[in-house]
Amino acid sequence: MGANLKTVLTFAIMAAMLAAVGVLQSWSLALAITNMCLVSAVMALGVNIQWGYAGLFNVGIMGFTALGGVAAVLVSVSPVAGAWQAGGVGILFSLVLALATIAAMVFVHNKLPKSRGRSWLLFLMIIVGLIIIRWQYAPSVLAIEKFQPAQTGFLGGLGLPIMFSWFVGGVFAAGAAWLIGKIALGLRSDYLAIATLGISEIIIAVIKNEDWLTRGVKNVSGLPRPVPYEVDLQSSPWFHDLVEKLGGSSLPSDALARQSALQQMVIESSSLFVKLCYTGLFVVVLCLLLWLAHRAQKAPWGRMMRGIRDNEDAANAMGKNVTKRHLQVFVLGSAVVGIAGAMMTTLDGQFTPGSYQPLRYTFLVWVMVIVGGSGNNLGSVLGAFIIWFFWVEAEPLGQWFIGFVTSGMAADNALRLHLIDSAAHMRLIFMGVILLSVLRFSPHGLLPEQIRR
Amino acid sequence: MTLLKAEAMIAGYGKTRILNECSIAVDRGEIAVIVGPNGAGKSTAMKAIFGMLPLESGSISLDDKNIEKLSPQDRVAQGMAFVPQTSNVFVSLSVEENLEMGGFIREDDINNTRDQIYSLFPILYEKRKQAAGELSGGQRQQVAVGRALMTEPTLLMLDEPTAGVSPLVMDELFDRIIEVRNTGIAVLMVEQNAKQALEIADTGYVLVSGENRFTDTGEALLADTEVRKTFLGG
Amino acid sequence: MSNDILNALVIISNYILVPGLAYGSQLALGALGITLVYAVLRFSNFAHGDSMAFGAMFTILGTTWLQSKGISLGPLPTALLALPLGIIAAILLCLIMDKLVYQHYRQQKSTPVMFVIASVGVMFITNGLVRFIIGPGDRAFSDGQRFIIKAREFKRMYGLSEGLSIKMTQGLTFVIAIIAMALLFWFLQRTKTGKSMRAYSDNEDLALLSGINPQRVVFITWVIVGTLIAIAGVLYGLDKSFKPFTYFQLLLPMFAAAIVGGIGNPVGAVLGGFIIAFSEIAVTYAYRKFLIYLLPEQYEPDGLMQLLSTDYKFAVSFMILVAVLIWRPTGLLRGKSI
């Protein structure tokens, strides 16, 4: 009961803070923060499934998020027929070649006895395979990227509704997680960390450089939306009626003034309405995932996971296949992160590979999970809200703080100017201090895991 | 001339009491052996004497000085040396470096002590440049004992030195331990191989459920029919 | 014909050997720090890359100050004079973070992963400090003579069509790294304190029994690691350029180097550093010109003859890392792992 009260109370405080932003700054900003909080909450939930349920330390979150973004592009953008004609076949063929190389390597690996010769043969196969694939691949890529490079220069996607990509993003991330989990799970915990760090850097490198796939750093913008566009709303009579019904009382009575004020209100409301639509969609996804995660945690499966986490040796001795369970939970958690990645790109309406930074997309999510409470799903949701809120609000707060500290200095003081310039970087220090303080003084986080025996 | 006197030790882990008023004494220049069935508290007694396990009550004195409040490190400085049962050498360090680390706290020249140890364990001199982890089990135990002797202790404590080595190696190790004793060092050891250990023991302690059941010379214990029947398998 | 072979050799030296030696030295120094923290404090330090940026930053600030006073080292970069400042700053950072952060978890005997998460917090703070003080942008701070050997002079001297050039920073990197490593290995192998560090890393309990003071070992370790951090950070910054984010990205190749060599094993870290550096450069180098010299005219390649584009250099260290994790998790020179 005490724990429930605390949960309700902390979420109420969080809501109040968001409302305060709405009143003091703007409702549009408050909703924008809320939407990113919701996306972050899904990410944090995914990480909590790995860390809180099973104690797996994944620092490749950025990569899985970006894979979700790739899914958003590949699902929603219409196919670029010209590019397909130019090099689509070549790309598909080199994909086949790559698969053939891998299949041949697996074959050799399984058929030949373990020996130095086999290792050299496999090594040689990689080199030869790479050369053959490049011979097929490089010209196709060139051809694709040459096709209308300013607008497309990539193969495009399937032209399906972007909401499908939330599922596909999860599948992409799950696939990458399966691969990396196969390699690094079962080794020391730090090795998984380093391997995931590596895979996420590589995923980003691929996305940035393979222009034929998602246009690389040229970005893909104008992704189709799952929610209405502002202009359409502004020209819809029903929206006008709705705005008038809700806000009519505050409008001036003079007909002419009333008309222009209403027009203004409709424009503002349309942007709020769009954001609210996203909020609604995200809340549905988050609640669904939370419900599933909660069910899983309470089921025998969750109990077993906790048992493994708390005493791996005992679980091993009891005949549980720890590595297999870990792989399961690692794939599931990464899939959730992939879903969040697709949701985020949907929200942004564009895919910008250059913006993926490990501090923001990997380590900040970790701060969310640790601060919220490892092992407690609602805790990581709360952590995501709080940390994202402060991540956004730290900038004005930092500016204000620096302004306050340096107020005694001359306006053109070099140090003052430097400090004001650098205030934005304070939030990194701030996040580090929050993480370390929670870890040290309240290691179970704001909403600790509730242990039911 | 009693060197170590541990009296009425009571100790345990959490609520489980392992030692029940157990007393151990070792004289200078003698080998004392603690034997007993599994779970009798033999190793626990060693840990308590060396200070790795706090006493609930009882007293321990070395050379008439109370030491029960000292940390293991400080007991080393007082002249105790302890050879754990496992992980008792620095595997990645050479034999020579192992000995050097044994004498880490000494400020004076340790070369003499090292040479004495080499003459006591000639095989260590031969292998002095080799990593301790590359040696055989018996040789490792010699390194472990040698490392402990580097502080020139008055009391050497060995926790099951022959665990996991072949009978042949065991005999050799016991010979070495007798030689150590002959240099005037008191030796206290816990042993599973009770019969062989009692053969070289000046004093033997038979512990059962953390209590002293029999205490006598090794010879007498070996001759005692009840001890033989109950603990030495006939 | 024989000139063709010579030219091909010069190309390989110029584009693979020399840069590989320089980059390998930088990675080796970084991996040494990571491996020492791992060996003594038993965790993977995610703050390592950003600490390198921190040490380099203080050196840059010192360099700027010296330059403003008109002090320079002639042909050598002024940064060498300011390096001690960077070393002191990095050591202080390490010691303060140990006192404020890691010490607590050591006393609690926390799991390695808790240390790693704590090091993420330290990484945030260090990264923030660096960006706050010097900004996130690029900073070139190398001055003095640019080349030891210039390509043009080399061509003239030997009458070859290809020239070998060795940058001052490349030469310095290699020499300083070799000196630093020699000193470190002398310290670890020959001094009593160094041996006690190895002993502590090997068997903590037995080290305690032998009267080795853990606090002192930890202190010395951070002093050494801080020194390595600053040297590696400055050499990398001199050779490439200083940008905070690239230091974070060095984490992956440095970890890969430490693990490939056998984590916890200093010799392995050096070996791993050079393996990663040479593989990275060799796999991403375009061999077209090299092959033109060696192959008969009719077989001359028309592509770049590059296995992987340079954008994928991370993939190289990652592939090597994965291969080692699969086939030899303890590393080439058996580190202390699993």
User: Might you state the CATH topology name of chain C?
Assistant: ABC transporter involved in vitamin B12 uptake, BtuC
Q: Give the overall shape of chain A, derived from the CA principal axes.
A: globular
| Overall morphology of chain C | globular
CATH architect. name of chain C: Orthogonal Bundle
Which fold does the CATH topology of the largest domain in chain A refer to? ABC transporter involved in vitamin B12 uptake, BtuC
Describe the structure using short key phrases.
heterotrimer, A: 453 residues, ABC transporter involved in vitamin B12 uptake, BtuC, 2 domains, two-stranded antiparallel sheet, C: 338 residues, mainly alpha, two-stranded antiparallel ribbon, 2 strands
Describe the model.
The complex is a heterotrimer of chains A (453), B (234) and C (338). In chain A, 77% of the residues lie in helices and 1% in strands. With 453 residues, chain A is mainly alpha-helical. Chain A has two domains: 2-79 and 156-441, ABC transporter involved in vitamin B12 uptake, BtuC; 80-155. Chain B is α/β, with parallel strands linked by helices and 234 residues long. Chain B has a domain at 1-79 and 154-164 and 186-234: 3-Layer(aba) Sandwich (Rossmann fold), CATH 3.40.50.300. Chain B has helices at residues 42-50, 72-78, 95-102, 111-120, 122-126, 137-149, 167-182, 194-200, 218-223, 225-231; strands at residues 2-13, 16-27, 31-35, 57-62, 65-66, 80-83, 155-159, 186-190, 203-208, 211-216. A six-stranded mixed beta sheet of chain B has the order 6-7-8-3-9-10, sandwiched between helices. A four-stranded antiparallel beta sheet of chain B has the order 2-1-4-5, with helices on one face. In chain B, helix 3 runs parallel beside helix 6. Chain B is globular, with a radius of gyration of 17 Å. The longest helix of chain C is centred in the N-terminal third of the chain and has 40 residues, at 2-41. Chains in contact: A-C, B-C. The B-C interface holds B 72-73, 76-77, 82, 84, 87-93, 97, 100-102, 104-105, 147, 151 and C 192, 195-196, 198-199, 202-203, 205-212, 336.
Produce the secondary structure layout.
The complex is a heterotrimer of chains A (453), B (234) and C (338).
Chain A: H1 2-24, H2 27-54, H3 61-76, H4 81-111, H5 116-146, H6 164-184, H7 189-209, H8 211-214, E1 220-221, H9 230-234, H10 237-247, H11 255-298, H12 300-310, H13 312-317, H14 322-348, E2 350-351, H15 358-372, H16 377-405, H17 414-422, H18 426-441
Antiparallel strand pairs in A: 1-2
Chain B: E1 2-13, E2 16-27, E3 31-35, H1 42-50, E4 57-62, E5 65-66, H2 72-78, E6 80-83, H3 95-102, H4 111-120, H5 122-126, H6 137-149, E7 155-159, H7 167-182, E8 186-190, H8 194-200, E9 203-208, E10 211-216, H9 218-223, H10 225-231
Parallel strand pairs in B: 3-8, 3-9, 6-7, 7-8
Antiparallel strand pairs in B: 1-2, 1-4, 4-5, 9-10
Chain C: H1 2-41, H2 48-68, H3 79-107, H4 112-134, E1 147-149, H5 151-158, E2 166-167, H6 168-190, H7 192-202, H8 204-209, H9 214-239, H10 244-249, H11 251-261, H12 266-284, H13 288-294, H14 313-327
Antiparallel strand pairs in C: 1-2
